[in-house]
TrEMBL record:
Gene Ontology CC: one annotated term: membrane
Organism this protein belongs to: Steatornis caripensis
Listed Gene3D superfamilies: 2.60.120.200
Protein name per Swiss-Prot or TrEMBL: MALR1 protein
Record InterPro entries: ConA-like_dom_sf, MAM_dom, MAM_domain-containing
Origin organism lineage: Eukaryota, Metazoa, Chordata, Craniata, Vertebrata
PROSITE patterns assigned to the protein according to its UniProt record, in alphabetical order: MAM_2
A Pfam short name: MAM
Occurrences of domain MAM (ranges): 8-137
Length: 137
């Protein structure tokens, strides 16, 4: 679940959220809930087993898959970007990374990551992003 400040909230209940760019073109991600019969997690971060979230499909667990946001406008003192998300790592070898790509750059800068944290529970993180130009996360 992504919470993009007061601007937008993505909860995947009716579809995929507007903040994510062309999710269906990114292989490996599926929209599901705890009742899907796909194993852990059996509910979302609020304990609701019928609430939807996205996860990696079982075929993708040994490789990587990317989610990409739409373009965000530059930040300044009045327009701060904070992205809050809930995540679950179900493999000891899994790594979740958040990267920032400014429009003038070809490379993605890693701004946060977590790995080796098999605790089978939802965790929450908030990232504040500062960029003087348009960017994607």
């Amino acid at each position: 679940c992504f919470n993009l400040g007061s601007c937008e909230k993505c909860d995947f209940e009716t579809d995929l959220c507007k903040a994510l760019h062309e999710l269906y073109l990114q292989p490996g991600w599926i929209r599901r809930n705890g009742r899907s019969g796909m194993g852990l997690p059996y509910s979302d971060h609020n304990g609701n087993d019928s609430a939807y979230f996205i996860s990696l499909s079982s075929e993708t667990r040994s490789s990587s898959a990317t989610l990409r946001t739409n373009v965000f406008l530059p930040t300044d003192k009045e327009h701060v970007c904070q992205i809050t998300f809930h995540y679950w790592i179900g493999q000891i070898s899994g790594t979740l990374m958040v990267g920032l790509q400014k429009h003038s750059e070809d490379t993605i800068t890693n701004i946060w990551q977590v790995s080796g944290e098999l605790q089978n529970q939802w965790k929450t993180n908030t990232i504040t992003i500062n960029s003087t130009e348009k960017y994607e996360v």
